[in-house]
Amino acid sequence: MKFGQDYEAALARGEYPPDWVNSAISYKKLKKCIKRVQQELLSLGLDKETLDALWKHVGSKGSDADGRVTDSLLQYTVKDGEKVSFTPKLTIVVDPRDGSPMDAWLSPDTRRILRRLARSSSIDSSQNQDGVSLEQPRIPNDCDKSGQSLDNKEEEQQQQQPGNTVEVPLTADSEFFQTLRRELACLDDLQQAEHARLQEEITRLGSELRALRASRSRRSKKEVEAWRKIFELYSDAEVFLSSHEVDAGARDAAHAQQQYQLFNQSLATQQKNDVLKLGKEANAALSRFLQINVNLLRLLKFQEINRTALSKIMKKFDKRTSLHAKRSVAQSLTKTSPFMAEDLAKATCFTISEEVLSIIPQLNDYLCPICFTISWRPIRLRCGHLFCIRCMVIMQREEKDHCPLCREGVVMEATESNIDKTMVKFLKANFKDDVKEKQRQNEIAAGIDQWGAAYEHAQMQKCVIM
User: Bias category Basic and acidic residues: which stretches (predicted)?
Assistant: First the structure.
């Protein structure tokens, strides 16, 4: 099945709202524009084979310091004056004597058309009624009106003169790019509106979670713990962004969909086991959080199929016309279009992280880098790095002075005054059970240091008896 059929089927499937479908790149309409471009080029005697021959000549020329082709027989440029104003034109080097194209094989019909275009320009004007501009040659005083030299020496000098140029505006080509630019502008507006809507939903959810966390009720505390578990599952799923070395960075829509399904399955398992207990309002907030992800996934898919449509239509344009527009014009369009250039998923995930996930602290963000448990009674070294007090005691006992993270010699100078009391309060308030467990483990470890391994056995027996 051709891409055009797949593209139309994807838009007609009902997955996207009507205003999205209306804003999508009109692949069929642009294909019809390409046919009109072909017809216009044929009317100028510039069929695909002729243009290919001209481009081969261009490819054989050298390049200047900026990488631009020098002394090119053919140039294809698009002047982008305004937001949706495109003026494509072909610039062809012609012989200053009779207007014939120089240094390329062309059919007799093509040569006749181009000579007619060149000769139709007046000497005093650089543009004729048809919009074809020509830089006129300067005729020497000792030449006749036709530009023919009077002797062989002067004829050789004329042959060495640089060629003049004929600019051929392409009307159908202009229609193609103006249509494409208008559609990209519509897609940019759509993305801006959808992004604003997502931002609004994320901000609203963040406000509700802040209110929940500020509440002192026992039920609110249980719901905060439930949200902490939800966000832990969500962070582990890495729905839109991967931190793994193999596929680090933004995921495509298909992989993001798979990761979202895995997150949903994990969430359903936790709810089935009664691990996540949420009230009516919290369940409504969870539904909105899931819907934010669904909407972002849908927008990501829509962005991908339109990017593919742009790439395909430009490839078809070049294949049918041989104007080589994709590598220059298409890149320019992509860079100036936020819909095509910006990574919406990455930007939205950053907002989710800042406005939602950060409200409910995650235990993984407060682990000691040495023992990978909660940094209870955290020691903040002079270098700024944080470790649990137990690990610092062990390092000082072994006379290891270098910070495990930055290798600065700051460990041996640390004392009880290095305990970060603000962090102690924060950890107690947010990870009460984990703090208790770490405190118990520290006490057992200290007892073993003083009384030996029998102390741990005695503590375990004591727990069993109790």
Answer: 141-156
pTM to 2 decimal places: 0.71
Task: Give the helix, strand, coil percentages of the chain, each rounded to 5.
Answer: 60, 10, 30
| Cα(275)–Cα(52) distance, integer angstroms | 68
H or E stretch covering 75: strand 74-82
Is the separation of the CB atoms in 241 and 346 below 8 Å? yes
- Collapsing DSSP states into helix, strand and coil, what is residue 235? helix
pLDDT tens-digit map of 154-204: 444 444 444 566 666 677 878 888 888 889 989 999 999 999 999 999 999
Residue 30 CA to residue 318 CA, distance in Å, equals 13
Only one residue has tokens 């369940």, namely: 283
Integer Cα distance of 242 and 245 in angstroms: 8
190 in a structural domain: yes
pLDDT in tens, 367-403: 999 999 998 889 999 999 999 999 999 999 999 999 9
**Up-side HSE of residue 94: CA atoms within 13 Å toward CB?**
28
Q: What is the mean pLDDT of the chain?
A: 77
Residues 327 and 352 in one domain: yes
Domain count of the fold of the chain: 2
341 and 378 part of one domain: no
Mark whether 312 and 427 lie in a shared domain.
no
